[in-house]
Amino acid sequence: MHADPVVLRDVRDELMAHALVRADETNYHTLNVDSVLSACPVLNSTVHEVFRFRGIGTGMVRRVLADQRLGSGYMLKKGGLVFAPNSVQHFGVTRAWDADCDIFGHRRFLQLNGGGLKGTSALRIFGGGGSYCPGRHFASAQLLVFAALVALRADIRPVPGREWANATADKSFGLGIATGFLMPDSDLEVKILSTGKNVVIIK
Ligand code: HEM
């Protein structure tokens, strides 16, 4: 978010309008978690786009239960394993994504007519088909609230000489479940400043 002023402004404006209960006299604002999850489509779309754009590991592995022909090109043999890399699902399936899917677009998952998010089964970060990650709502909700807090409370900038435009994320995957995600190839050194807003969470 902080690397792109347009994304940061959009997310902050939305949170301020729909999820932040302001108490101007005390500067002690309250973030409404329910509203972050249900009334902030731009933030939700941005997090989905991070899942799509960075989540290009191989999260889905399936065993072939019976010989099966896939289209005219592939014969899947019983007992084999099929690895479905998200790098293909999240970019190469052109019918699922717009032509600009090779660039990051924080509004990609917004419904055109406003309100809500587009559903797409091509987003495979939590699995797909007959089996999905049962912790996906829990994980997404935590990420959304954390992202909301960071957007509202922190100004994050690269330290001089370590500009984000020069950062690469071409070859490193994380550990554990984060193997689904491309990570920066080296540490990002940043300066974190307070925006001066005191935010607490309520449920
Ligand atoms: C960003 C965080 C997470 C990601 C990207 C993620 C991703 C995945 C993926 C790709 C699978 C395999 C699904 C498939 O084979 O179709 C999976 C399975 C699973 N996940 Fe997650 N997960 C995350 C967080 C969590 C959390 C927080 C929990 C528990 C609270 C959880 C519990 C599980 C369990 C139990 C399975 C196995 C389900 C099964 O085999 O039927 N995950 N996850």
TrEMBL record:
Q: Which Pfam families match?
A: p450 (PF00067)
Record InterPro entries: CYP450_monoxygenase_sec-met (IPR053007), Cyt_P450 (IPR001128), Cyt_P450_sf (IPR036396)
Stretches of the chain forming a coiled coil according to its record: none
SUPFAM superfamilies from the UniProt entry: Cytochrome P450
Highest rank taxon of the organism: Eukaryota
The name this protein carries in UniProt is Cytochrome P450
Its taxonomic placement starts with:
Eukaryota, Fungi, Dikarya, Ascomycota, Pezizomycotina
